[in-house]
Specification:
Distance between the termini: 117 Å
Shape: flat
Largest sheet: 5 strands, antiparallel
Strand order of the largest sheet: 4-5-6-7-8
Radius of gyration: 37 Å
Low-confidence stretches: none
Structural class: alpha+beta
Number of helices: 19
Length: about 550
């Protein structure tokens, strides 16, 4: 596909600028890969190492850091987006959930179908990779494409392979990457007619040339006008293009997107940085110290068990046996023998304790105490205390969870919803929902626990009202009890079907008031009858009773 050479050079200049911004992070990412995931990110190796296919693991002697990172990633996967339980629901802002209403039925059916698509695609596998990237490198990426077999297909570009850029709102809106495909993969993906002469020649020769590497450049950006050959229909807010590295004026493919297909969450941002920081960065010093101490401990043990020795000159070129029960024969035994060159007295207990302290700091930095709280308790605790401890620790993940929902889950679910809607995989919505925005509500374990923190003031307020009511009964009239209970139930994750809608609740309240009024009237009548009976049985003299005198008889 021929395009304007000048416009193509401008796109290459954009990628060059994105690469320069990323270059400041690249050495740090490489160090993180060396000490956490050395066998995974070949794109963080030097070009010479990639050519030689060098795969090394020389820096990890104690795997506490890697294990802690995987526990945090697995805990977030299970706590935020568990495949085994619902973790989101759809709702209409401003409308109360009414069980059995057409709107609620439609929203529930859409949620069910979306969960089915997510489960039957590779979404959760890609999400697990993204969590691990996020906790180690602070920046992760996943691309969601439409797929004819599983509706959606997700891909995880490796760190060091991609670049990102932000708009003025500090949201990622440009994504680029450089990756390598084999000749046969390039032809299968883009078509032989769109490939360069070099690729077409290799494909025609077949044989080993089909396995030659071809470097591909991939760019996804806003579909702005003035691209000189890059334009796609204006109905698409975003466009993507592919070209072979080193080839100018030719594209492999060009197409548009209705939504930005790249999901790029960051753990924590500083200022207007495009890339985020991570717990692994915070723990890197402790991880390096741990590897150093573990190495020195091993060296000390080696020197204690098998120390360097000095030997008598008479033993030179003589067979010696220094193993247990070994015997060495010499002509004379005066001043003949082998002894340590120096004595190593390793403070093994102190060193072991210090290593354990470093390991504990690493696990704490990775929030392992949150996800392994019960297994780490030294005594049996009550459920209330465990909940209180969990809520206390969840405060540390509050901003991270909110950012992840905004930067990862919201765009991912909106992308999936739109793809399904265009494929006519969603039921026809009720007319009452026309023009209304659909809101995503997260009901995962961590989201619910975070929301539950907001009810603490409510609990304190209810307790205060209860205490004051003993001295001042009118205090119970201050709270709006019905709204208070509804907000409380929603905050702690009570299902909507378990709470009566306001109209049902109002009807039940009216029915209860009528029953109470009937009972009160019945009780009043019974009291009057009993009083009349007592008066009629009370003699007041002259053959008359108190009731007759009261009635004037």
């Amino acid at each position: 596909m021929k395009i304007d050479v000048e416009a193509h050079n401008k796109k290459k200049a954009i990628l060059k600028g994105m690469e320069e911004e990323r270059q400041a992070w690249w050495p740090h990412w490489r160090e993180l890969a060396d000490f956490y995931l050395p066998r995974r990110y070949v794109w963080l190796q030097t070009p010479q190492e990639r050519v030689r296919k060098v795969v090394k693991n020389p820096n990890i002697l104690d795997g506490t850091g890697t294990t802690a990172a995987r526990i945090l990633a697995a805990g977030m996967m299970n706590g935020i987006t568990s495949p085994g339980r619902p973790w989101f629901r759809l709702r209409i802002p401003g409308l109360e959930d009414q069980i059995g209403s057409p709107e609620r039925v439609w929203l529930d059916e859409v949620t069910r179908r979306m969960m089915l698509v997510l489960a039957e695609s590779n979404f959760y596998n890609a999400l697990a990779v993204m969590y691990l990237d996020l906790v180690v490198f602070g920046t992760a990426a996943m691309i969601i494409y439409e797929d004819s077999e599983s509706v959606i297909r997700c891909y995880n570009p490796a760190l060091g392979e991609f670049y990102i850029a932000q708009d003025y709102r500090l949201q990622v809106n440009t994504f680029a990457r450089e990756f390598t495909y084999k000749v046969h993969q390039v032809v299968a993906m883009f078509g032989e007619e769109n490939c360069s002469e070099t690729v077409r020649s290799a494909y025609k020769e077949k044989g080993s040339r089909l396995m030659e590497d071809v470097k591909i450049v991939h760019l996804i950006e806003p579909n702005l006008p003035g691209a000189n050959g890059y334009e796609v229909p204006r109905v698409f807010p975003y466009r993507e293009c592919y070209w072979e590295a080193g080839v100018t004026g030719e594209l492999l493919a060009l197409r548009g997107f209705h939504e930005f297909p790249c999901i790029c969450p960051r753990w924590e941002l500083s200022g207007n940085d495009s890339y985020g920081s991570s717990p692994a960065m915070d723990a890197l010093g402790d991880v390096i110290q741990l590897q150093h101490e573990t190495k020195k401990k091993g060296q000390g043990l080696d020197k204690m068990v098998n120390p360097p020795v000095i030997a008598d000159i008479q033993l030179k070129h003589k067979p010696t046996a220094l193993l247990p029960n070994g015997v060495t024969f010499v002509a004379g035994i005066n001043n003949v023998g082998v002894k340590p060159a120096y004595t190593v007295q390793l403070p093994l207990q102190e060193l072991t304790l210090d290593i354990r302290e470093v390991q504990a700091r690493i696990r704490e930095t990775f929030h392992n105490d949150l996800f392994q709280m019960i297994s780490q308790l030294d005594t049996v605790r009550s459920a209330t205390e465990i909940d209180a401890r969990r809520e206390e620790k969840l405060v540390r993940l509050g901003s991270v969870l909110e950012r992840f929902e905004n930067e990862a889950l919201d765009p991912a679910l909106r992308r999936v919803f739109s793809i399904m809607n265009r494929a006519r995989l969603l039921p026809e919505p009720p007319e009452s929902l026309a023009g209304l925005d659909i809101e995503i509500q997260y009901v995962s374990i961590l989201s619910t626990a975070q929301s539950a923190l907001s009810v603490i003031p409510t609990e304190r307020f209810i307790g205060l009202v209860g205490n004051i009511a003993a001295m001042y009964p009118k205090a119970v009239n201050v709270p709006n009890w019905e709204e208070l209970l509804r907000d409380y139930g929603q905050a702690i994750g009570v299902p909507a079907k378990s709470i009566n809608p306001p109209d049902v609740s109002q009807a039940l309240n009216q029915q209860m008031d009528e029953i109470l009024a009937t009972r009160e009237a019945a009780n009043t009548g019974a009291v009057a009858v009993e009083a009349a009976k007592n008066l009629s049985e009370t003699e007041v003299g002259g053959g008359a009773n108190a009731l007759q005198r009261l009635l004037g008889g």
